[in-house]
């Protein structure tokens, strides 16, 4: 049997990434990578279909050339600050003859949970199972095969603006792709970076992109919160350009080559060269650059904290936090996160790490690059055929939920 080929696309505001992989023994064997400069995309949303199509085509062509084959179709991420998450419930009476829950009953109760009022300009992108209840028995992960009369479910629903997905679909249609499979980028990043233990214990993922930072919270194995804040790594670049009076391209290079998030990690005598408007070079202490960067990173932390304070699950995030996305390449990010929490609240440092998409085989160039987390993650999700529809029907276990009675220091970080 011929090995299936999967292709994923992450069209961001800064760059467009394509990954082609062969499915080999239920694992991703990466055979092609493409990356092009983004055009026609702002804040993760397509604003010029023709320009975006040209840029996307360059990325796909590069990946196909490396792979030595043509992608049969493509799965794409969708993102931007229009993405919102909410939790919903559904309930049905079990209609089977012997009152046994079947996959068809699961689909019915999920459809019931999706029957919610949302603005006319929005649509449901994904509905993600959290847990089930059967005749009052709670905390069931997979009720198929169990018997009862009343089946309830809790579901996390992710919505987005209709025109955003429609423009992405039209852009892909201009090539040869169907544009039928979209997955929210933070969901892909989470799948690529998190362990199952982290999802069970409770963890928050921050995907720091070009113009936005996406947030996703997992509790007891399921998604419970999704949000996007309109600040990303480009804001850091803009601050550098304004603070040092240099061009945006020069500021981006300076951030990439010498940037640090945490001033305590930069020596007082370290010197770097900075270009002037006339093209000449001048020298400044490296700490001056960090003094520009650190406040913006702290602002991202603060905004993320305000978002998480809207929910009541913070005490359960025992696995801490994971940073990913292109913005997570900034050195000192994790160290600043720990110091920021200690300085602001005087609490013990929390668990924090950088998440990378290292669950792949084949071309390993991107395995340690958090900028590729989203595109690798959506390919990982597509390994399960059931994730090709809007309601991903997971292969779940009967494993019970963890309960914690101790005070988690993580909660102090976001107050």
TrEMBL record:
Self-interacts. Interacts with FtsZ. Its main location: membrane. This is Cell division protein FtsA. Residues 6-193 form the SHS2 domain. SMART domains: FtsA. It comes from the Bacteria. One of its GO terms (cellular component) is cell division site. The lineage of its organism: Bacteria, Pseudomonadati, Spirochaetota, Spirochaetia, Brachyspirales. Keywords: Cell cycle, Cell division, Cell membrane, Membrane. One of its GO terms (biological process) is FtsZ-dependent cytokinesis. It comes from Brachyspira hampsonii. Pfam families: FtsA, SHS2_FTSA. Belongs to the FtsA/MreB family. Cell division protein that is involved in the assembly of the Z ring. May serve as a membrane anchor for the Z ring. It is found in: Cell membrane. It is a peripheral membrane protein.
């Amino acid at each position: 049997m011929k090995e299936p080929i999967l292709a994923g696309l992450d069209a961001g505001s800064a760059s467009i990434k394509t990954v082609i992989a062969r499915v080999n023994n239920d694992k991703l064997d990466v055979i092609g990578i493409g990356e092009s400069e983004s055009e026609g995309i702002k804040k993760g949303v397509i604003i010029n279909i023709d320009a975006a199509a040209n840029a996307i085509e360059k990325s796909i062509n590069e990946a196909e050339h490396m792979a030595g084959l043509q992608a049969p179709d493509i799965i794409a991420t969708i993102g931007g600050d229009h993405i919102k998450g909410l939790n919903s419930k559904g309930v049905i009476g079990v209609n089977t003859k012997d009152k046994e829950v079947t996959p068809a009953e699961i689909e019915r109760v999920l459809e019931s949970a999706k029957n919610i009022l949302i603005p006319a300009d929005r649509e449901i992108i994904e509905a993600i199972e959290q847990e089930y209840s059967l005749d009052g028995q709670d905390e069931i992960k997979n009720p198929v095969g169990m018997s009862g009369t009343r089946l309830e479910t809790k579901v996390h629903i992710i919505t987005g603006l209709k025109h955003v997905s429609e423009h992405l679909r039209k852009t892909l249609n201009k090539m040869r792709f169907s544009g039928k499979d979209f997955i929210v980028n933070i969901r892909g990043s989470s799948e690529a970076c998190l362990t199952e233990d982290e999802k069970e214990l409770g963890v928050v993922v921050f995907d720091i992109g070009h113009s936005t930072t996406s947030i996703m919270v997992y509790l007891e194995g399921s998604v419970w919160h999704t949000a996007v804040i309109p600040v990303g790594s480009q804001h850091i670049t803009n601050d550098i350009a304004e603070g040092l009076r240099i061009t945006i391209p020069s500021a981006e290079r300076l951030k990439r080559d010498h940037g640090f998030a945490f001033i305590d990690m930069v020596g007082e005598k370290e010197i770097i060269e900075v270009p002037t408007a006339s093209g000449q070079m001048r020298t400044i202490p490296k700490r001056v650059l960090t003094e520009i960067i650190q406040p913006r990173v702290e602002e991202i932390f603060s905004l993320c904290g305000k978002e998480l304070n809207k929910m009541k699950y913070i005490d359960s995030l025992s696995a801490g936090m994971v940073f990913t996305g292109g913005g997570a390449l900034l050195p000192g990010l994790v160290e600043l996160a720990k110091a920021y929490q200690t300085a602001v609240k005087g609490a013990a440092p929390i668990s924090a790490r950088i998440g990378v998409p290292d669950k792949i085989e084949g071309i390993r160039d991107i395995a340690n690059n958090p900028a590729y987390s989203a595109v690798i993650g959506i390919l990982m999700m597509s390994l399960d055929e059931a994730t090709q529809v809007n309601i991903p029907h997971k292969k779940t276990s009967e494993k019970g939920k963890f309960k914690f009675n101790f005070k988690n220091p993580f909660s102090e970080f976001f107050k």
